[in-house]
Design a protein that fits this description.
Keywords: Signal. The protein is α/β, with parallel strands linked by helices. 46% of the residues lie in helices and 18% in strands. The protein contains 16 helices and twelve strands. The termini are far apart.
Length: 341
């Protein structure tokens, strides 16, 4: 018995030593580890990103991480995991809520499931143009939306750009009339389905990964997204007709788990919050470059591009969608109106 007891003690000591030496995110999230000087803790956190390593949001994630490392003298390290290495968007958000993942960059769309105010971004033609959107996002009203996520055990740190969504089709489309009756792929939510109905099209919910084959085989006639997604997925190969109506502008959001946030000192919270805000300009610049590249590439590929000159006609057509879904967002819509110029 004494020999067995001695072995158990020895094994326990080895396991404890291994845990002390661990530098994983989970270990550091629990208590932090003391820095060399012994006065401030060090952390290693994980940031989940669904896009590829060279995508504008991923580049901004990395820039954010670099700013945090620099301003904390290397005490706070944030490892960015691109290409959905830590899971797809919806699953990652749940892990952030639980504190199993520290940060994520997500579209504002899925966040409406956690705070309904984010549903305002899915409403059609809410913003007149990109500057209008950013005037709102960078205001106190935009900050309020970020803070409202606290009720869902998360905290919004900053917004990133994702451009404007427009329609592209396998058939020539140069006007609103050309969309009539077309089967258009949409994300599965009531606003998008009602939007297609209002435009006279047929909403066809479908997973994003199935869109290329759907367009190729005729299961759908059209889809909608921003320039970079249209280009990077090569949807232009099977849907070479693009009409720029900019019906939605849904920003990206950089989010931190409330569990992670609560473990940080006021000083470290300030470092992370400021770095996130300071990374916005970098991301917007990277997005603009990629958007321009995408446009140039699809034009060279022979895509027919039509810009909607009279968007009032389109806005009038979807008024029923705003009447039906806008009431619950009226306070935010009134705030958005303040930033028109």
């Amino acid at each position: 018995m004494n020999i067995k007891k001695g072995l158990f003690v020895l094994l326990g000591s080895i396991m404890a030593a291994g845990m002390v030496g661990c530098s994983s995110s989970e270990s550091n999230n629990e208590t932090g580890t003391e820095s060399a000087g012994g006065d401030k803790p060090t952390y290693e956190f994980r940031l989940a990103e669904t896009h590829a390593a060279d995508y504008p949001t991923t580049l901004a994630d990395k820039h954010f991480a670099e700013l945090v490392a620099e301003r904390s003298d290397g005490r706070i390290k944030i490892d960015v995991f691109p290409s959905a290495a830590l899971g797809e968007e919806a699953a990652v958000i749940e892990q952030v809520q639980l504190g199993a993942i520290d940060f994520t960059r997500t579209s504002a769309g899925p966040l409406a499931e956690f705070y309904k105010g984010y549903g305002v971004f899915s409403l059609p033609y809410v913003f007149d143009h990109d500057d209008h959107m950013w005037n709102f996002l960078l205001s106190e009203h935009g900050d309020e939306l970020l803070n409202e996520l606290e009720s869902s055990r998360m905290l919004g740190l900053a917004y990133y750009s994702s451009g404007a969504r427009s329609f592209y089709s396998t058939k020539p489309v140069a006007s609103l009339d050309d969309l009539q009756g077309q089967k258009i792929r949409v994300q599965q939510n009531a606003v998008n389905i009602d939007l297609m109905d209002a435009l006279g099209a047929s909403a066809t919910p479908m997973a994003f990964g199935e869109v290329y084959s759907g367009l190729q085989t005729g299961v759908i006639d059209a889809a909608e997204n921003n320039y970079p997604s249209y280009y990077s997925t090569r949807h232009y190969e099977v849907a070479p007709h693009l009409i720029l109506d900019s019906h939605q502008r849904i920003p990206e959001v950089l989010v931190i788990s409330s569990s992670t946030w609560s473990k940080l000192s006021t000083e470290d919270q300030e470092i992370i919050q400021t770095a996130a805000k300071d990374s916005i300009e970098f991301q917007r610049a990277e997005w603009a470059k990629f958007e321009q590249l995408a446009e140039e590439q699809v034009r060279e590929a022979g895509v027919t591009i039509t810009k909607v000159e009279n968007v009032l006609e389109w806005q009038s057509k979807v008024k029923s969608v705003l009447d039906k879904h806008g009431e619950e967002h009226q306070e935010i819509l009134d705030a958005i109106d303040q930033y028109r110029n």
